[in-house]
Amino acid sequence: MKVVLDQVAKGAALPATSAAFESGRASLARAETEQRPTVLGPIASGRMRPDDGSVTSTARPTTARCADGSPSSTRPTSRSPPPT
Fold first, then answer.
1. CB-based contacts of 23, cutoff 8 Å, min separation 6
2. 55/76 Cα distance (integer angstroms)
3. How far is 49 from 68, CA to CA, in rounded Å?
4. What is the DSSP string of the chain?
5. Range of the domain at 42
6. C or N: which end of the chain has fewer Cβ atoms within 10 Å?
7. Per-residue confidence in pLDDT tens, the chain, 84 aa
């Protein structure tokens, strides 16, 4: 499985950050403060939705829900307005 975070951000807690993680490989995401790894991890795992940016994964879609009640998905997420 591969997870790609492209310019994900979450308020003041996480400025725009890009990273990629892949099964069977060790990865390091450098964070400048104590709070940032706590925010980056849930976004990368699909448990928290980013305010901006996108998260994509090669994993199968899931019907799980995030702590805030929003759907957890392996599809790309973005802050684009909903279709009209």
1. 1, 2
2. 5
3. 9
4. -EEEEEEEEETTTEEEEEEEEETTS------SSSHHHHHHHHHHHTSS--SEEEEEESSPP---B-TTSSBP-SS----PPPP-
5. 2-57
6. C
7. 899 999 999 998 888 999 998 988 888 887 676 667 788 889 988 899 999 999 998 876 655 566 666 665 544 444 444 455
Q: Judge contact between 66 and 18, C-beta under 8 A.
A: no
Which token pair is 75?
């599809």
The reply to whether 29 falls in a domain is yes
Global pTM reads 0.63
The residue to which tokens 């993680």 are assigned: 21
| Tally of CB atoms within 10 A around 55 | 22
On whether residue 19 sits in a domain, the answer given is yes
Tell me how many domains the chain contains.
1
Residue 81 included in any domain: no
